[in-house]
Amino acid sequence: MNERVIATNITKSFRSTKALDDVSFSVNEGELFGFIGPDGAGKSTLFRILTTVMNADSGDALVDGFHLKDEIAIRSRVGYMPGKFSLYPDLSVQENLEFFAKVFGTTVQENYSIIKEIYVQLEPFKDRRAGKLSGGMKQKLALCCALIHKPRVLFLDEPTTGVDPVSRREFWEMLGRLKQSGLTILVSTPYMDEASRCDRVALIQKGKILDIDPPGVITKKFPLHVIAVKSDNMQKLRKDILKVEDAESVYGFGEFLHITMKKENSSTEKIESLLKQQGHQHIEVKIIEAGIEDCFMHLMEHNKN
Amino acid sequence: MRTILVIIRKEFLQIFRNRAMLPQIIMMPLIQLLILSNAATFEIRHLNMHVIDQDQSQASRQLIGKFKASNYFELSDFSFDEKHADEDIMQGKDRCILMIPKGFEHDLMKEQHTKLLLNINAIDGAAAGVINTYALSIIQNFNQQIDAQWINQQQFDQQKILNTPYSFWYNPYMNYKTFMVPGLIVMLLTMVGMFMSAQNIVREKEIGTIEQINVTPIKKAHFIIGKQVPFLIIGLVQLTIGLLVARWVFSIHILGSIPLIYLFATVYLITLLGFGLLISTMVDTQQQAMFLAWFFMVIFILMSGLFTPIEAMPQWAQNITKFNPIAYFVAVMRMVVLKGSTIKDILPQLTAISIGGLVMCSLATLRYRKRDG
């Protein structure tokens, strides 16, 4: 396979905090590679290093065949969409796009085919100032600007943060189609549910990569059993649930509590009757498949120890 | 080269999109020039003077008459009481006291010398100095006349009176506006250029666009030049407006070569904008940029020779002005506009400012990092 990004032992510290701790991974051509982790995990720092806007303390990477010190070569080969909206708010949609095309020595016409599908949605607002666009439109414009010079590798730093659910889904569908054109995409997100959209994901926490695998493999590899529980008194439930035999840990997931069980043979009836004894009503207990989030929580917990 | 043009175009788009910008760069300097040139003058007229004439003689009346005849003094009060006069000064009613003691005329005739007392309210030191000069020149004039009229007549010993005719070169009527306007044009050009450039790059940092710029293959020097050129053009437009106002409103004829002024202004603006952009690369917020820009602006303007002559400063301060770009431009403007100096005459200033420009632009380029820590 053709590797587009190979990172080896990248380390970066800010004063005493280690933002990235010996990070290594590789991304193949045409792959949609996700970095999943909470805020402050080091995702943005990693992207800034790989796009050559920040120096690593140690370690190196090959981006589209070029070492990090070869910044001019890398800068014309990568597209980067920072987490914070960073286009000119006082320039119109069209002016922003033309500016970034020309800065890369190309024109909008030349590479229009790449952005066409996204840009048609922006076209009605092409004379509107970028600062006056809605969140979803801003993301689309930023994506267009990051793509207009036909990059080989695309870095998207939390592209869906602060975007509504519909726009989020649209955005991921767009990424899926871009990937099919052979573009290599690295995307970071704090949303676990977006992991399933990626070909492979790296779970990252406190500057360390915990696991890299396709999302399906990560959940299959999960050694424990997950049971979702809900009742009328969730606060009490949190305490009572630990009385269940073999319960390892409990996390809140929306309206349910997820209990990871050490053994697979625990039955839902046993838990239900135990909770009834404690005075809970409207009890719902079901065995579920572990999601990325469950795996993440588990790995985090294990990493601590 | 193409990249530079792209950046210049973008900067102009942003400048003119900002509605407050155009009035800011055209109207504000214009208004300031019209107000300041009329206000910034050292001429003081109609000063209230309290006269205590204890002599009541022909000589004392003649002296008072001389003060009255000048346009500078308004003889507002007469008394014989020093206390009363002191009170008037305290209350701010009078600016100075002229006290002619008893025996003024007698001493003048017999002893050939006499005494006068002049008290000036020196709360405003500069004004007090001016009042002192006016008063002394009137008294001197009186002295000469007395010499000629009375004393020498009696002694038949014709003393030679030294008469010093004077003429003010390059500004024959000592018109303050003629003197101030070229300097003020420099100041206005400087303020707008300095503040706009100091705020520019840091603004991109604040709104985050610098991050997107940094991942592009734009070269650092191209970026700095692309930022400088629009402000340079705006500066030259302001200079043109300033010179037109000087010509039409203040009737100042430019004696020297106009292209020479533009040549110097271009080099000067490159230096100034380089400095502004250097500030912009060093700070993190527009507020910090403004504070730093103001700090240097105040020092530069007050030490530029615009309001107080550089020759009057202590040596160490004069040494500092060697690093003050405004001082060079103010001097050159006055030389070329009022005196008709040629490129040969301003070569030292042109050399100094060129070196400054080279240093500033190099520093700004070096200090602007596309890659951090």
Question: What this model shows, in words?
Answer:
The complex is a heterodimer of chains A (305) and B (373). Helix content of chain A is 33%, strand content 29%. By secondary structure, chain A is α/β, with parallel strands linked by helices. Chain A folds into two domains: 3-215, 3-Layer(aba) Sandwich (Rossmann fold); 223-289, Alpha-Beta Plaits, CATH 3.30.70.100. In chain A, the strands form three sheets. In chain A, strands 6-7-8-3-9-10 form a six-stranded mixed sheet, sandwiched between helices. In chain A, strand 4 and strand 5 (66-67) form a beta hairpin. In chain A, helix 3 runs parallel beside helix 5 (135-147) and helix 4 (112-122) packs antiparallel against helix 5. The radius of gyration of chain A is 22 Å and the shape is globular. Chain B is α/β, with parallel strands linked by helices and 373 residues long. Chain B folds into two domains: 2-40 and 172-367, no CATH class; 47-155, abc type-2 transporter like domain (abc type-2 transporter like fold), CATH 3.40.1710.10. Chain B is 66% helix and 6% strand. Chain B contains 14 helices and four strands. Chain B has helices spanning 2-17, 21-39, 58-69, 82-90, 104-110, 125-155, 176-207, 209-214, 220-248, 258-282, 286-302, 315-321, 325-339, 347-367; strands at residues 47-53, 73-79, 96-100, 117-120. In chain B, helix 3 (58-69) links the parallel strand 1 and strand 2. The two termini of chain B are 29 Å apart.
Properties at a glance:
heterodimer; A: 305 residues; alpha/beta; Rossmann fold; Alpha-Beta Plaits; 2 domains; 10 helices; globular; B: 373 residues; abc type-2 transporter like fold; four-stranded mixed β-sheet; 4 strands; elongated
Number of strands of chain B: 4
Number of helices of chain B: 14
What percentage of residues of chain A falls in helices of 4 or more residues?
25-40%
Using DSSP, what is the number of strands of chain A? Answer: 14
Average pLDDT score of chain A = 88
Overall mean pLDDT of chain B: 87
Strand order of the largest sheet of chain A: 6-7-8-3-9-10
Share of β-strand residues of chain B: 5-15%
- CATH fold-level topology of the largest domain in chain A: Rossmann fold
Q: Which chains have the largest interface?
A: A-B, 30 and 25 residues
Please provide the ordered H/E string of secondary-structure elements of chain A: EEEHEEHEHHHEHEEEHEHEEHEH
Structural class of chain B: alpha/beta
CATH class of the largest domain in chain A: Alpha Beta
User: If you compute it from the alpha carbons, what radius of gyration of chain A comes out, rounded to the nearest whole angstrom?
Assistant: 22 Å
How many angstroms separate the termini of chain A? Answer: 36 Å
Gross morphology of chain B is elongated
What Rg of chain B, in angstroms, do the CA atoms define? 28 Å
| The CATH homology group name of the largest domain in chain A | P-loop containing nucleotide triphosphate hydrolases
